[in-house]
């Protein structure tokens, strides 16, 4: 049974079989598999950020002390190592399969210009491949490029029984430094995913990742984005001493997490040249069954297009 790590708080921290209702709920639950303790109560889409309670507002306002520059530089330098160690500890057990992207890709599949058209996809920051393998199983006429910072994560992808070099190419890459076009022909990708990846990158470097993806996307191609939203429960429960900058925090294991506002995301994508198709908050309330606690989760979901 996989254990939930204190601090990492992805909506999709694992349930063993990809339980669809497994958001993490708080430090008091560290060590418990999420699917054992929490369930989603409702979900809705919003155009405005979640309003904070007076206590939450006071907590965020009181937390102004930033991690030192020296430590921040060390975290940047060791970012790859910290993610690699994350996968050493958790192997393939932490994140669960992404059904949201499967639904999104269904829409994409329907847009084939002709029935036999092969779609080329890119999973940027693929982790152990929770997004690509469900897709590869469902649609035989796709080719997927999958890349990640962590060599260990890439190795897990390659060891997956569903990995087939004729339909998939996994490779190690820092999206902010290594040209994707070394592995992927320019303007060849129909759709790329960025699922809980950009939040792990320093806000000053996020644009580099988006530009890199832009170069390999076909005109008309889309980026599907999902990540932590502003005022998510995970943001509120960082202890003081974890703040790196505005809406940016470090976890105990050295991995970092940014919490996106719609406005920030829109500016980031449009500055690179993308058009916004969708950009909305997804709000979920989840209940910790054991403790009877209700926690608000906020994610930001977007779809951005490279113009024709
Ligand atoms: C929270 S995980 C999400 C993994 C996967 N997208 C999923 O949904 O299961 C974040 C991933 O981003 C990767 N990552 C972080 N910074 C990166 C960078 N600069 N270039 C490529 N991948 C990066 C990490 O190695 C990690 O696998």
TrEMBL record:
Q: Name one GO cellular component term.
A: nucleus
Give the SUPFAM superfamilies listed for this entry: S-adenosyl-L-methionine-dependent methyltransferases (SSF53335)
Give me the ranges of the annotated region Disordered. Answer: 1-30
UniProt-listed InterPro entries: Methyltransf_12, METTL2/6/8-like, SAM-dependent_MTases_sf
Localization terms from the record: Cytoplasm; Nucleus
- EC class, as a word, reads transferase
Q: Which residues form the Methyltransferase type domain?
A: 122-222
Q: Which UniProt key words apply to this protein?
A: Cytoplasm, Methyltransferase, Nucleus, S-adenosyl-L-methionine, Transferase, tRNA processing
Q: Where is the composition biased (Polar residues)?
A: 19-28
Which EC number(s) does the record attach to this protein? 2.1.1.-
Q: Which Gene3D superfamilies does UniProt cross-reference here?
A: Vaccinia Virus protein VP39
**Superkingdom of the source species:** Eukaryota
Q: What Gene Ontology molecular function terms does this protein carry?
A: tRNA (cytidine-3-)-methyltransferase activity
Q: Which reaction does it catalyse?
A: cytidine(32) in tRNA(Ser) + S-adenosyl-L-methionine = N(3)-methylcytidine(32) in tRNA(Ser) + S-adenosyl-L-homocysteine + H(+)
What quaternary arrangement does the UniProt entry report?
Monomer. Interacts with SARS1/SerRS; interaction is mediated via tRNA(Ser) and is required for N(3)-methylcytidine methylation.
Extract the PANTHER family matched here. Answer: METHYLTRANSFERASE-RELATED, TRNA N(3)-METHYLCYTIDINE METHYLTRANSFERASE METTL6
Family, as annotated: Belongs to the methyltransferase superfamily. METL family.
Q: What is this protein's name?
A: tRNA N(3)-cytidine methyltransferase
């Amino acid at each position: 049974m996989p254990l939930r790590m204190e601090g990492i708080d992805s909506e999709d921290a694992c349930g063993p079989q990809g339980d669809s209702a497994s958001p993490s709920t708080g430090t008091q639950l560290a060590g418990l598999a999420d699917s054992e303790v929490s369930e989603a109560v409702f979900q809705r889409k919003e155009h405005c950020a979640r309003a904070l309670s007076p206590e939450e507002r006071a907590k965020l306002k009181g937390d102004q002390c930033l991690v030192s520059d020296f430590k921040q530089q060390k975290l940047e330098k060791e970012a790859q190592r910290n993610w690699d160690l994350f996968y050493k500890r958790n192997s393939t057990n932490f994140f669960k399969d992404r059904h949201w992207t499967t639904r999104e890709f269904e829409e994409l599949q329907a847009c084939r210009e002709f029935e036999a058209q092969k779609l080329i996809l890119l999973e940027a920051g693929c982790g152990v491949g929770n997004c690509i393998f469900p897709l590869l199983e469902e649609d035989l006429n796709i080719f997927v490029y999958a890349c990640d910072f962590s060599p260990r994560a890439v190795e897990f992808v390659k060891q997956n029984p569903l990995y087939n070099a004729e339909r998939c190419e996994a490779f190690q890459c820092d999206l902010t430094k290594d040209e994707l076009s070394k592995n992927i022909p320019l303007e060849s990708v129909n759709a790329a995913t960025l699922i809980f990846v950009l939040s792990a990158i320093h806000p000053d470097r996020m644009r580099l990742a988006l530009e890199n993806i832009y170069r390999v996307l076909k005109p008309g191609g889309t980026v599907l984005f999902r990540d932590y939203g502003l005022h998510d429960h995970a943001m509120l429960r960082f202890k003081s001493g974890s703040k790196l900058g505005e809406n940016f925090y470090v976890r105990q294991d050295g991995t970092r997490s940014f919490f996106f506002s719609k406005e920030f995301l829109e500016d980031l994508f449009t500055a690179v040249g993308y058009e916004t198709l969708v950009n909305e908050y997804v709000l979920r309330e989840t209940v910790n069954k054991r403790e009877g606690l209700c926690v608000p989760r906020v994610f930001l979901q977007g779809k951005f297009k490279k113009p024709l």
